[in-house]
Specification:
Elements lengths: L3 E2 L10 H11 L12 H21 L7 E4 L2 H13 L8 E4 L5 H12 L3 E4 L10 H7 L4 E5 L13 H10 L3 E5 L18 E5 L10 E5 L25 H39 L3 E3 L10 E6 L4 H7 L3 E2 L1 E2 L1 E3 L4 E3 L1 H5 L4 H4 L2 E5 L6 H20 L2 H7 L4 H13 L1
Parallel strand pairs: 1-11, 3-4, 3-5, 5-6, 6-7
Antiparallel strand pairs: 2-8, 7-8, 9-10, 10-15, 12-15, 13-14
Helix pairs in contact: 1-7, 2-7, 3-4, 7-11
The chain binds pyridoxal-5'-phosphate.
Pyridoxal-5'-phosphate binds next to helix 3.
């Protein structure tokens, strides 16, 4: 039997309709979109411009030339932050972000710090939600950028981006959002939501890998990261990946067309899984926000069970756990750590990332496996025995912890 794919935050399969529109540009329509002295180039250019329009339509951008094509959201995040920072004459200033951003934001922030910029992290609550008043309080005279994700890829928490954008604009700051996980699930509109720059990745919305975009509001200038022929309004040189842009455009069109129906379907599927887990398994904890979360995301900790072992037990399902295997040790996810989730709970977490192809039957089959494996793994856990006998594990572990500290 084919493994059921439940890891749609990591990537999504290419939609058959997307592949279909890409095919000619991988075969007969090989023109260079910049070589418009002949019809090969002109047809490639027209295809790219249509893709740009489709992306613009998805996010409510007023003009297609506000869409800069990139190699994916990692590059888009880099271009937004470095592009803005490095064109400041004095190479200094202040950026505000949050600790649960994608590494493309966090590592770029760290890089910019080394270049002399300063970075602040706005506090988040235990659900990962940014505190707007605290965010406002962090703004300084030299702040030039707020970058906060639209939704989180591990815990699914959806940030109040329109309110954040309004705060940024009240203070004449630019607002960038990494909207990779939100697109296709949340209605995002760059004008209504006061967004100046927005990162998109095709492969997270059933498009091809290796292509994405950065929305850059008209009038904003960025220092290019890649110099050359002056493509993409001078902000990103290089011959365009025409098939990729066509695929990105089609994926954006489908995401817009199916937003309402697919979000409703995913929400029902997600809630079926959530209710099944909460009604059939005790000592579980939902990570992320109880209501402000992506339609396709659940993240649960199953106390007294190793997430990795549970994942292995759920044979036939492609899942992801809250632990990251580094060369030295098993580290709990930086996102869960930022939410102050204790290590033991973080290591017992599993992320469920639902998508277009998933069905009620698959969810029900997964629930059976979860129930069976959690029971089996807990039977092997001495701590679980203590918990059942009424020994207070929380205080037990805390006194152990204190003991080590003294
Ligand atoms: C996947 C992802 C990225 C990186 O996108 P790529 O196109 O794979 O470079 C950035 N941000 C978020 C939130 C993501 O989920």
């Amino acid at each position: 039997m084919k493994t059921v794919y439940l890891d749609h935050h990591a990537t999504t399969p290419l939609d058959a309709e997307v592949l279909e529109v890409m095919m000619p540009y991988l075969t007969t329509e090989f023109g260079n979109a910049s070589s418009t002295t002949h019809d090969y180039g002109r047809r490639a250019r027209a295809a790219v411009e249509q893709g740009r329009e489709e992306v613009a339509a998805l996010i409510g951008a007023e003009q297609p030339d506000e869409i800069i094509i990139t190699s994916g959201a990692t590059e888009s995040d880099n271009l937004a932050m470095k592009g803005l920072a490095l064109q400041r004459a004095d190479h200094s200033g202040h950026i505000i972000t949050i600790a649960i951003e994608h590494k493309a934001i966090l590592d770029t922030a760290r890089f910019l710090e080394k270049q002399g910029f300063s970075v602040s992290f706005a506090p988040i609550d235990r659900y990962g939600l940014v505190d707007l008043e605290e965010l406002r309080g962090l703004i300084r005279p030299d702040t030039f950028l707020i970058t906060i994700q639209a939704a989180n890829s591990e815990i699914g928490t959806i940030q109040p981006i329109a309110e954040i954008g309004a705060i940024a604009h009240e203070h004449n700051l630019l607002f960038h959002t990494d909207a990779v996980q939100a697109l296709g699930k949340v209605d995002v509109d760059v004008v209504r939501d006061h967004i100046d720059m927005l990162s998109i990745s095709a492969h997270k919305i059933y498009g091809p890998k290796g292509v994405g975009a950065l929305y850059v509001r008209k009038g904003i200038r960025l220092q290019p990261l890649i110099h050359g022929g002056g493509h993409e309004m001078g902000m990103r040189s290089g011959t365009l990946n025409v098939a990729g842009v066509v695929g990105l455009g089609k994926a954006a069109l489908l995401a817009k067309r199916d937003l309402v129906s697919e979000s409703a379907r995913l929400t029902a599927l997600r809630d079926r899984l959530r209710q099944g887990i909460e009604s059939r398994i005790d000592l579980v904890q939902l990570n992320g926000h109880p209501t402000r979360r992506l339609a396709n995301n659940l993240n649960f900790s199953f106390s007294f069970v190793e997430g990795e072992s549970l994942m292995l037990g759920c044979r036939g399902f492609a899942l992801s756990s809250g632990s990251a295997c580094t060369s030295a040790s098993l580290q709990s996810s930086y996102v869960l750590r930022a939410l102050q989730v204790p290590d033991a709970i973080a290591h017992s977490s599993i992320r469920f990332g639902l998508g277009k192809s998933n069905t009620d039957e698959q969810i029900d089959a997964l629930l059976e496996l979860l129930v069976e494996n959690v029971k089996r793994l807990r039977e092997m856990s001495p701590l679980y025995d203590m918990a059942r006998e009424g020994i207070d594990i929380e205080s037990f572990s805390w006194s152990e912890h204190d003991h080590h500290n003294h």
